[in-house]
Design goal:
single chain, mainly alpha, Alpha-lytic protease prodomain-like, 2 domains, three-stranded mixed β-sheet, about 10% strand
Length: about 300
């Protein structure tokens, strides 16, 4: 699946969400466990989030236009932020279902079959999460990575629910069932907050990752021997797209052609090393004091 687009994986996530919802709802209906219900509600969030991801990835893939000269790639951050908000809504829904059970515990029924259904759903989510993480890294997609992390949270949630329900069956402490559901709610609140924080940071033009900034510095450093210096290096990212701008200071005696050739050489080297990178350079004479006044901007 190396050549598949991000939208393909988003549609794959929709299919998996539909299947796991059916399995987890079946587990809840068989067992009457509010723990399994909380797990099913989280998969419902997965479905809505996957649908939102399809929209975001479709929007992000649109080419630049007159109103959006830098493209539409930031649409992905709206999707991951929306997913984080949905996770918080799911946590509230779980709490609403679980709190009454604290005061009126209910017995757990047909536990064996319910556990089997939940285990199958967890295996599906776990396998898909690994696929999405790999694809998200390859395609530089925050939407796929957010979906993958949410699915991994879902898997750990399911494991906790399964262990807790087994403990209920062994001890007959029925109050453990709603307590497990509330722990699930607390866990996914944490995941939702982290997603919202990550999306908000990116919408504020966060810098590209440190490892990518170091790669740019490694490309620029050899030019010091050619009496070339750099400053005002600024980076930002928007979905899959990366942007870097900087000033190139060269001896004032250089010709326009020499300066232009150098800019082209550096821009090409960065773009080859970092796909989806947009490079903007500004040439300045090394000896002019005015060339140094804007280096801290």
């Amino acid at each position: 699946m190396q050549n598949k687009s991000a939208r393909f994986y988003a549609f794959l996530s929709i299919g998996a969400a539909l299947l796991t919802i059916a399995l987890k709802l079946g587990a809840y209906l068989l067992t009457n466990s509010v723990g399994f219900l909380s797990d099913a509600l989280e998969s419902g969030v997965n479905l809505i989030a996957a649908i939102g991801a399809v929209w975001a990835l479709t929007e992000a893939a649109k080419p630049p236009d007159e109103e959006h000269a830098y493209g539409h790639s930031k649409a992905e951050y709206f999707s991951s932020g929306f997913e984080g908000a949905l996770i918080l809504v799911a946590a509230v829904g779980i709490a609403i279902a679980a709190i009454p059970r604290l005061f009126n515990p209910q017995p757990v029924e047909q536990l064996g079959l319910g556990l089997v259904l939940s285990l199958i759903a967890s295996a599906i989510n776990g396998g898909l999460a690994l696929v999405l993480l790999k694809a998200g890294k390859r395609l530089h997609s925050i939407t796929l990575r957010a979906d993958a992390h949410h699915l991994l949270t879902d898997v750990w949630t399911s494991v906790g629910v399964i262990l807790g329900i087994l403990l209920v069956s062994v001890t007959n402490w029925l109050i453990l069932d709603p307590l497990i559901a509330l722990l699930v709610a607390a866990n996914i609140v944490w995941a939702g907050v982290k997603l919202i924080q990550e999306s908000g940071s990116a919408l504020l033009d966060a810098s590209i990752p440190l490892v990518e900034r170091q790669m740019i510095n490694e490309i620029l450093s050899p030019y010091d021997r050619q009496q070339v210096q750099f400053h005002a290096i600024r980076t930002r990212m928007a979905g899959t797209m990366r942007f870097v701008s900087f000033h190139i200071l060269v001896p004032g005696a250089w010709t326009v052609q020499q300066g232009h050739d150098l800019c082209e050489e550096i821009e090409s080297a960065i773009c080859q090393a970092l796909p989806n990178m947009n490079v903007f350079t500004h040439l300045e004479p090394l000896e002019d004091p005015k060339s140094w006044t804007d280096q801290e901007l």
